[in-house]
Amino acid sequence: MRILFVCLGNICRSPSAEAVMRGLIEREGLEGFEIDSAGTGDWHVGSPADPRAIAAATERGVAIGGTARQVEPADFGYFDLILAMDRSNHANLLAMEGADPEKVRLFREMAGEGDLDVPDPYYGGEDGFDEVLDILERGSVILLETVRR
To answer: Which one of 12, 13, 36, 86 is the catalytic residue?
Structure first.
């Protein structure tokens, strides 16, 4: 199962989601998963995750690594599930060449929380990164149960 998490710049929400899911899969001792993240925008390509996202995740024992990249048309064929962090990125993904509406879904929808957005903490305070991690940790457990079925 290949899962791609997507936000706008790939420096806050999607790398956090990738790290949370990787950690969950490792703790469960599961194999056969490939987890990645990307952004719909190109502003931060090649940059590490936001230091505030890294700090908030580190406090919870979650390690965020890698550098930002932009979604590519080939991702639609490669990944089994592409999870947008919000409705805007969801719409942007569906407008891209090769997008498959069956594969492109909202993260919180897959986590059983409806069509709610994972809020973007970039312009907010430190507590926004904790809120995002709360949503991602809770949702990743449900997401993993769903894809394992």
So the answer is: 13
